[in-house]
Each structure stands twice: as C-alpha cells, then as structure tokens.
Amino acid sequence: MSAEAVGTSSYAHADLLPGVLGSTVGYASTASEEALHRGVPAPWLTFILSLDGPVVWSEDEADLGTAAERREDVVLGPLHTRAAFVRMPRRQAGIQLTVHPLAARRLLGVRTSELDQGRVSGVDVLGPQVEALRQRLVETPTWPERFVVLEAYVRDRVERAPASASVRPELAEAWRWLRRTGGRERLDGLARHVALSHRHLGTLFSTELGLSPKRVARLVRFDAAMGRLTASVRTGRPVTFAALATEAGYADQSHLDREFRAHLGTSPTGWLAEELRNVQAGGHRNGEA
C-alpha cells in the first residue's frame, strides 16, 4: 500500500553521539492518503520522538485499526526480528534515532533484552522528562536547533549513567567482530576471537540483547544487505538482486529472497515497490557512525 508523496524532507545528523547513536534523522512529510509502512528489522533499537501526532504501530499488521494497535508520541522499539507495521498519516513529522543495543543501559537505563518485555513505551522507560523533551522539540523552530536540544538530552543521560551500565569488553568486541564481518563468518570464529565458550558467549548475548549470537549475526547480515540496497536506490544505480545476494554473503538470490520473506513478509521487489519513495527521500537510515 502506498500513497502519492506531496512533500517529503529529511534532515540527517550522522554524528550526534557516535558509539551510542547510529543515525539521527528528522523527517517531515505530507501525502495524498494514509499508507502502511513496513519497518525493517535491524541490529539497532529504534527511538522515535513524534512532533505531529502519535505514531500508530504494531508488531502484527492485523492489529492496526483495532484497539490492540499502539499509539505513542515516544516510541522505543526493541530488536525486532520481523517487520513492525506503522500506519502512516497524511501528515507527519518527528525525529528517529537508531540506538546502539549495547548502549541501552547508558542511554535508556535498561538492557536491550528488557525492552521486549511487557510492551513498554518510551515514557515508561525514560520517564516524564522525555515528554518534556518532545514538547520542547515541537516548539523549537529549526532542525539544527532541535538537534542541539536533542544532543544535550542524550549526552546528559549518558554522562549520568553509572559505571555498572557498561557492558563486558568481550561482548563489545563480539559486536565489533560481527559488524566487521557483516554477519557472514562462522560463529565458532567469534567464540575463539573473544576467548569465550559458545555457551558463555550465548549467555552474554541473551542476557544483554535478548537474542542469541546466531540471531544477531543474521540481523547484521540482513542489515548490511538492506544498506547496500537502499544506497543503490538513493544514488540511482540499478539493483541486481543476484549481485546483492553475493555481496551480502548469501548463497544465492533465492537465499536472499527467503531472508526478506522471513524478516519482512515480502520479497525484495515487493518491499522496494512499497518503500521506494521513502528510501529516495532518505528513510531507512541505519548504521554506526
């Protein structure tokens, strides 16, 4: 489902706080009608501050339009392994941040693994101060000024975090290894690299992230494939899915197609047809600054 774009703009701040935030994008758009957006799973937490009406979303497409859908001005999305569905209004504005999952305790005060328990909201986690931040952002007239306000909030929370909020160095290095290898290497190499047993490494991942190393590696590889795909679209390069599969470390195009269907419930061409305008306008920006 798509809508004709009337006006779309995005404002990126790539280096707001490296190591804590991956990307920070302000967005404002109007469209001819409401649309369905299929949020892409990625190895990042999603933090959205809406500046124009609540974000209406659900982890189950069937919940949209029912009492089970979520309507939030401040959204904190956990590490999704499947698409999240957003009901996009004709007019919307806000700021979307991707948060490093190992920085969750420093910025949010909770582990990443805790965000998927009990369908917690952003205000539940961050308290009333985050609503005060959102209101201030609404009242701030320009994007550069908004980013200044946001950076002060993020930096203050991180600097106030206790020393116990830091993760074990083996886990931090395991994350860096997965990112360097694009999730393509065998995980026995990861265990050797950080000098931990498979079992111990799995316990660290499960406790901090709520996912196994294998599941995180799969997300990292899918994220890398999506990054290549969206970069090609933005620069106008032709997309060859067989080549994309090879570059991202999949066995073949059929393997890539299966991963798209598992993560997004649709094929690569189906997703691109839905999200082409959003990608061209600067949406779907993830990654580590």
From TrEMBL:
It comes from the Bacteria. Keywords: DNA-binding, Transcription, Transcription regulation. The keyword Hydrolase does not apply. PROSITE patterns: HTH_ARAC_FAMILY_2. Residues 186-274 form the HTH araC/xylS-type domain. This is Helix-turn-helix domain-containing protein. It comes from Microlunatus spumicola.
